[in-house]
Design a protein that fits this description.
Largest sheet: 4 strands, parallel
Helix content: 40-55%
Number of strands: 4
Order of helices and strands: HEHEHEHE
Low-confidence stretches: none
Structural class: alpha/beta
Distance between the termini: 30 Å
Strand order of the largest sheet: 1-2-3-4
Mean pLDDT: 89
Radius of gyration: 12 Å
Length: 98
C-alpha cells in the first residue's frame, strides 16, 4: 500500500465526515471487531481504536485484516512502546493526546 501524505490523510478524514472511536478490547476483542464490522457496513471509512486496553492492538490488527480499505487510527498513543504496538498492528496513523 502506498504511504499516505499528511494532505491525503486530511482529505480522507474530511471526506469521511465522522470518525467513530472504539475502546479497543473494552468487552473483548471479538466484540470490538463486531462493532467495527457494523460501522464499516454502515459506511464508515475511518475508525479510531483507542489504545487504553492491553488487547487494543489485537483488535486493530483483526479489523485491519477484515477491512483492509478502512483507514485505521491508533488513539491515545502515549510513548514509543505504544507507537511500536500501533505500528505492529498496522495502524495507518496514530493520535496522541496533548
Amino acid at each position: 500500500m502506498k504511504r499516505m501524505t499528511t494532505e491525503d490523510l486530511r482529505r480522507h478524514a474530511a471526506d469521511a465526515g465522522i470518525v467513530p472511536i472504539l475502546m479497543g478490547g473494552e468487552d473483548d476483542v471479538a466484540t470490538t471487531v463486531q462493532v467495527a464490522d457494523a460501522l464499516v457496513e454502515a459506511g464508515a471509512t475511518v475508525i479510531e481504536v483507542l489504545f487504553r486496553r492491553p488487547d487494543a492492538p489485537e483488535a486493530l490488527a483483526q479489523i485491519r485484516r477484515r477491512h483492509p480499505g478502512v483507514l485505521l487510527a491508533a488513539g491515545t498513543i502515549l510513548d514509543a512502546t505504544g507507537a511500536a504496538r500501533a505500528e505492529d498492528a498496522r495502524a495507518d496513523f496514530m493520535i496522541s493526546p496533548g
